[in-house]
Amino acid sequence: MVKIGNLELxxxxxxxxxxxxxSDPPFRAVCKQNxxxxxxxxxxxxxxLIRDAAKSVQKLDIFxxxxxxxxxxxxxxxxxxxxxxxIVEEAKPDILDINYGCPVNKVACKGxxxxxxxxxxxxxxxxxxxxxxxxxxxxxKTRLGWDNDTIRIVEVAERLQDVGIQAISIxxxxxxxxxxxxxxxxxxxxxxxxxRLHIPVFGNGDIDTPERAAEYKAKxxxxxxxxxxxxIGYPWIxxxxxxxxxxxxxxxxxxxxxxxxxAKKHLDFSVEWKGEKLGILEMRRxxxxxxxxxxxxxxxxxxxxxxxxxxxxxxxxxxxxxxxADYEFSV
Length: 331
Description:
globular, 331 residues, alpha/beta, 8-stranded parallel beta barrel, two-stranded antiparallel ribbon, 44% helix
């Protein structure tokens, strides 16, 4: 049984990665229904929280049916991060997660996210202050290092454990790689082989099929996996991986009716939570994967990502259901 503090997550948990403008409540709802064991919110700016910025505060919205759930924060000032952690705890998540992995320039080049990998001592000091500030378990998501010359992930995991984190998720790329090239999970074995390390280690990066999940589970000694980009528009990935790990067989691909039903549910919640304009806009990134592989679909995809009203999008989805009624997805 993998545990974070007293939180039991099963024998080999699958986690939904925190993704900006993706891991919101509407998306988390469909991932939870399709097998995600632990989910994290989008990352939230510590400065935004302590200044009561509306966008940051809204990201604190969590719901009972999502539990267990973690709220993730980022920032480069220790005092601001400590204050933000106290605000997060009031929202009553199960876990507080610290983002030490975001590679985008607007975050990393300001010393937050993956940027703190250039200052491990500050990373440890910041983590220690956050752990002391809250009573809920604190976890960390990070990368291997800033670049190939600064990979100190074994040391980082041990030092963060020593100041009180209760799990670590490692995206097996450097910041310099961004999302390119192949993730090098061999470093995760090195972390797990450290005899001083006893907290759970979750692997992240390149897990996009049940077959790859099974291969990496057998090859690398991690306690579970964190799924990110492969879940966008395809929340079924969690249950598909679980089934394959348990049986060695692939589940049937979700039918067109199932895809449309989940897409509509996702859209409904998105509009309800964000309002029609923003809810429709932020759903657009999901449609390609909801209907990936369908022939001659470009016209409908274009219409969906350019429609501005809820009724228009629903009408397009209904039209897709009629036109492709006999289409069967391959596994």
